[in-house]
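pinging the channel bc i need a second pair of eyes. not urgent but kinda urgent?? the chain im working w is below, pasted from the shared doc
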Amino acid sequence: MDTLYDDDVIAWVEQQVALMRAGRWSELDVDNIVEEIEDVGKSEKKELESRLAVLMSHLLKWQLQPDFRGPSWINTIREQRKSIRHRLKKSPSLRRLLSDDDWLAETYRRAKIETYASTPLTQLPDSMPWPLEDAMAMDFLPD
């Protein structure tokens, strides 16, 4: 049997909010609320990973393809850094991921996949070739 959650998640959200505002706690769809809250956390982590992978990929391209450097790469690098900073400001607890070696290695692996897919490069460093602090610095461009 389909529920409102299954049929129309936006209508379900509106319903759940109305129930909360009315203090009708026993009528809440707690299982799906819990799932949605967990998904928000996962989404925030995924967004940070995606932005950092794009940043790393463009820094690799900048470093390894100097003949192709241009304003669009600089704009992408700046935009990713700004978005990462915004994300970390909005959710400071995400900072702990930046000191998680396994998470960083997976993010760099993703950056390498993106770089291989968008360039003729066939060899990339096994690990991120710059300190994370440098990669995140607004004025850093690897040579």
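so The mean pLDDT is 96. and DSSP finds six helices and no strands in the chain. — does that match what u expected or am i reading it wrong
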